[in-house]
Every structure is written in structure tokens, then in C-alpha cells.
Amino acid sequence: xxxxxxxxxxxxxxxxxxxxxxxxxxxxxxxxxxxxxxxxxxxxxxxxxxxxxxxxxxxxxxxxxxxxxxxxxxxxxxxxxxxxxxxxxxxxxxxxxxxxxxxxxxxxxxxxxxxxxxxxxxxxxxxxxxxxxxxxxxxxxxxxxxxxxxxxxxxxxxxxxxxxxxxxxxxxxxxxxxxxxxxxxxxxxxxxxxxxxxxxxxxxxxxxxxxxxxxxxxxxxxxxxxxxxxxxxxxxxxxxxxxxxxxxxxxxxxxxxxxxxxxxxxxxxxxxxxxxxxxxxxxxxxxxxxxxxxxxxxxxxxxxxxxxxxxxxxxxxxxxxxxxxxxxxxxxxxxxxxxxxxxxxxxxxxxxxxxxxxxxx
Length: 361
Fold this sequence. Notes:
Layout: E1 41-46, H1 53-63, E2 66-71, H2 75-83, E3 90-93, H3 97-105, E4 139-152, H4 165-168, H5 170-173, E5 177-179, H6 183-193, H7 203-216, E6 222-223, H8 228-233, E7 239-243, H9 244-253, E8 257-260, E9 268-274, H10 282-293, H11 295-305, H12 312-315, H13 320-323, H14 332-335, H15 348-359
Parallel strand pairs: 1-2, 1-3, 5-6, 5-7
Antiparallel strand pairs: 4-7, 4-8, 4-9
């Protein structure tokens, strides 16, 4: 089972692109095996698309520290490795919001020394004191987004507006739509459609969501968090449930593919930067974070990688076209209906049981 934010494990070559002021060029991110290294090395554990070789070069030029990165495809993969003792060399990790709280509870993270960090007041207010990490004590926001649909606007003349669109148009969409391979996102979305919380702890509500999904399953092409990309570009899919950051990238390849956030509400997620307690290079970790906190760096990273920066000073440096991209930066009227995923405790076993029943066979 694949959880939140799965990405391609192989790194594709990308074309070079000059960036203003820093003279950066896009490069490929290779994965390295992390082993304990000297203070002139910084090991990072991250999502695939959150760094590139030129960012590494810029950091190296400023600090003399070489960056090596391993990539993971889910928060659960990352957490399992760290808990098993396989993350001892990493000085920077990029967990998502709900996993931050779990890692704090497990005693895996270093409390950040804010006096060693720059520009913390540049964050948008919603990111300055998040519920998953009050006062940003252990984490800082890096990228954020929503969950919704990407759809072919040429073939679907009536665009999807809410989650119930899938059931209302089940025959037309049959075998040409996908849902994520993610228990929390999929069951959470249906819970929201039914008027419940994404984080419901009521077993009867969870069962209702499961029963709705049972009706829809015969029309699904697959449960997948990443394979939909090539399929929708090839015209094999009409619609896919996806993350906003993925949708923005794919829409650049085919402008007829549009992203929409369901009007009844969706999930609002944040991917963060943390320093694990076992960090081998704490000084290097603070230097890395401070590089990313610089508004000009954050702005260029946001524009280059199609990411939604949480840095208000960086946002103000973005071109108006990017600022006004509602897929990246939705208005408050939409965000107010979105909900963060939260740890569920023992009720998580109920989600897992229904998910296994839904996806097996």
C-alpha cells in the first residue's frame, strides 16, 4: 500500500533552464546511499522533485559542504527507515505535516533553534503556528498544496465540481478514471463528500465511505498515485485524483488538462523540513535551511519546480502569472473548506481494514 505523495523512483533527465541572479541551471537529482560522513557532507532524505543538482552546487559554493540525497516515495517508507535506524546519517528530512506530529511524539526530531534561522516572520500567517507543530518548534514549511482532480477539458465538456461527480458520471468515466493509492486521501475525500471530517474517528462514517467506494470501484481504471500521469497525457484517462503540484506540472505539458479542487472541500497538506535527532551535520543542516529561507531562493524554487511556497516574501517576488495560478495558490474561499490530515490513533486500523477490502481482488 502506497501512502501520501508517491513519486517516480527513477529520476528523469530534464532540460537546462537559466535562473535570474543565481545563474542556476536545472540538473538531475541522483540518489546516494547514506552512510555516516564527515562534516563536509550533508545527507538529505527528500521527495524526488524538491531539489536539484544546481541547488546542491550553490550550497556547496557557499559552505564547502557536499550534498548527497536519497529520495523516498511515501512518508511511511521514510518513517519506517528512520525508526529502523537506517536514517542515522540524514541531517535533513522532508516529512509531511501529519507525519511531523507522529515523529515528534516518537522523539525523532530536534527542536529547532530559531535564533539560528533567518526570515521566519516571512511565512504566511497560516504557516507560522500550524496545528501539527505549534510555533514551528520542530519543522518549517517548504511546499504546500491541495488534493483534487485533473481532467481532460476537451473531452469532458461539463467539468467536475465536487467528489460526487464521479458517481453521477460513473458510466461515462468507466475505466477512464483513477483514484489515488492512498487510504487517507481516498476514504477522506468520500467522508468529506458525505459531510464528515477527513479525519473521522467514527467507524459508522468510515463504513459509509467504504460502501460508496464499493459502488464506484468497478468503474475505476486503477488506484494509483503516479501512473495516471502518462495515461492522461496519452488520452487513456479522462480524469484522475491527484495532488495540485503534480497537476500543475502535467498541465504545462497539455493545457487542455485542468485541475479543480472539489467545492465541498479537500485535503490541505504541507511538506516540511526537519532536523532529525540523529543528524550527523547539524551546522550544515541549519545552513541548508537558511539557504531555502532566502526569499529569492524560495521564489526561484517555487517557479522552477511548480511548488507553492509558504514564504510570503518569496511569493511577492513571483511573476503575477504564477501568483494568480489558483492551482498553486487557491483563494481563501476554497482553502477555508480544506482540512489537514491528522494522526488517527487506533482508529487507523479501521481505515486499513476497509481499504484492504476495497483494493483486494
